[in-house]
């Protein structure tokens, strides 16, 4: 059975992630159409950690080959929250199977390209689950809105297979409580192994030292990852994140900024978002906004240059937002050269919006929202806000989301309502409800009453985050 899993919400401190599981091929039975058991969710964790481009999580360091029998070491428990479209009998099963045959469920095409994919999703067999893991590190690769397709047999973790016997020995000793023995094995792996094995051993050694309060030793381990030019960028970003968080805990603003900027330059928005949430760090955009408001324009420019200096338009865009030159900012956003440039501008726009919200300047906050209200591009800025949800005032996020929903069908494409609502479903149900209602109205005007009923039903199902 092929399945797709979407991340709805993440509670790192509570070691919990809420996911939605979609059945992507015809259900074979009315008795158990959804996957059951911890093995499936362990496979989800493992594949998400090492089976996607440009994503590498700590779980991929310790599990090279999937074995469902290992699930209990990583999955603490699973609870099903709800289910939708479950077949009630053989006749209903055939009706659902017919829909699958007629419409298809190609996750890659439907989920990454076709903007009408959400209408199909309303009809798929699906269920929401809360998944608790044994270590918060297993949640590191995720961000809200991630989609993972699970295939069988699962692919091996990408990249070179390191000679990691010493690393595995360290991890085994750490699980048994022998921290001195674990540190010794990690150090030996870092000194003797190939590039990837060295990097992962140093990351785990740094975490072990940090958890024991051995800050200097932890910093030294993370710095070694940065000093090695052969280290994969995914591990570079993880090391930069840990450096930023650890340095913040013991002071040193310049060192924090340097480490945080490294994570930002690595193109690692997940790392940046986690650093902001866990250590209260300012993004370069937030720092620039604050310094400019304090009268230090040179400091603001320096902060932006350190993070975005290779993209002059991004720096100019930020300064235009900070100066209230929203017309100029709009022109720069519309002329952004490429997805990465748009992503950076979207992140800075959220920084500015939050800064204006904190200052009580609602007019400027609304002006920033209008700047990024461009068809197909607005989701970049909205995803940036979702990524840092744990440190964004909920009322501000809801206000921004509702404004964007209200623009759909005018400044924004009607289908953007679904793109805004989907990632907000767990975090900001009020926004999701507004977006689903908007989609219902849109498809009803097109004459598709059945699809409209599905959207309205999803709007009514929204409830406060649990």
TrEMBL record:
It comes from Nonomuraea purpurea. The keyword Protein biosynthesis does not apply. TPR repeats lie at residues 163-196. SUPFAM superfamilies: TPR-like. Keywords: TPR repeat. This is Tol-pal system YbgF family protein.
């Amino acid at each position: 059975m092929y399945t797709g899993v979407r991340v709805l919400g993440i509670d790192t401190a509570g070691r919990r992630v809420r996911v939605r599981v979609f059945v992507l091929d015809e259900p074979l039975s009315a008795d158990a159409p959804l996957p059951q058991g911890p093995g499936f969710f362990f496979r989800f964790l493992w594949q998400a950690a090492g089976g996607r481009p440009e994503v590498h999580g700590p779980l991929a360091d310790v599990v090279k080959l999937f074995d469902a029998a290992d699930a209990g070491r990583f999955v603490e428990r699973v609870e099903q929250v709800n289910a939708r479209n479950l077949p009630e009998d053989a006749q209903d099963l055939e009706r659902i199977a017919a829909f699958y045959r007629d419409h298809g469920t190609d996750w890659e095409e439907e989920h990454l390209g076709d903007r009408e994919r959400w209408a199909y999703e309303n009809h798929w067999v699906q269920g929401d689950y809360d998944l608790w893991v044994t270590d918060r590190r297993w949640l590191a690769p995720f961000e809200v809105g991630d989609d993972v397709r699970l295939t069988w047999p699962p692919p091996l973790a990408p990249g070179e297979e390191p000679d990691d016997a010493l690393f595995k020995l360290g991890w085994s000793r750490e699980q048994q409580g022998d921290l001195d023995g674990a540190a010794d094995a990690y150090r030996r792996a870092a000194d003797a192994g190939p590039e990837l094995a060295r990097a992962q051993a140093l990351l785990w050694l740094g975490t072990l030292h940090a958890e024991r309060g051995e800050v200097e030793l932890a910093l030294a381990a993370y710095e070694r990852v940065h000093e090695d030019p052969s280290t994969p960028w995914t591990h570079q970003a993880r090391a930069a994140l840990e450096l930023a968080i650890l340095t913040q805990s013991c002071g040193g603003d310049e060192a924090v900024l340097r480490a945080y900027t490294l994570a930002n330059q690595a193109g690692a928005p997940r790392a940046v978002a986690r650093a902001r949430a866990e250590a209260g760090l300012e993004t370069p955009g937030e720092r620039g906004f604050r310094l400019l408001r304090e009268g230090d324009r040179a400091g603001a420019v320096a902060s932006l240059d350190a993070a975005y200096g290779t993209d002059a338009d991004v720096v100019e865009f930020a300064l235009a937002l900070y100066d209230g030159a929203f017309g100029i900012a709009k022109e720069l956003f519309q002329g952004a050269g490429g997805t990465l440039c748009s992503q950076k501008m979207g992140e800075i726009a959220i920084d500015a919006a939050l800064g204006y919200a904190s200052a009580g300047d609602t007019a400027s906050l609304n002006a920033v929202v209008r700047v990024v209200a461009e068809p197909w591009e607005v989701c970049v800025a909205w995803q940036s806000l979702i990524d840092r949800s744990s440190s964004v005032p909920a009322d501000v996020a809801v206000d921004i989301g509702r404004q964007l929903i209200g623009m759909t069908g005018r400044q924004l494409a009607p289908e953007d309502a679904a793109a805004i609502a989907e990632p907000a479903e767990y975090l900001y149900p009020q926004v999701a409800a507004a977006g689903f209602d908007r989609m219902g109205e849109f498809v009803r005007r097109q004459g598709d009453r059945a699809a409209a009923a599905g959207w309205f039903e999803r709007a009514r199902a929204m409830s406060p985050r649990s």
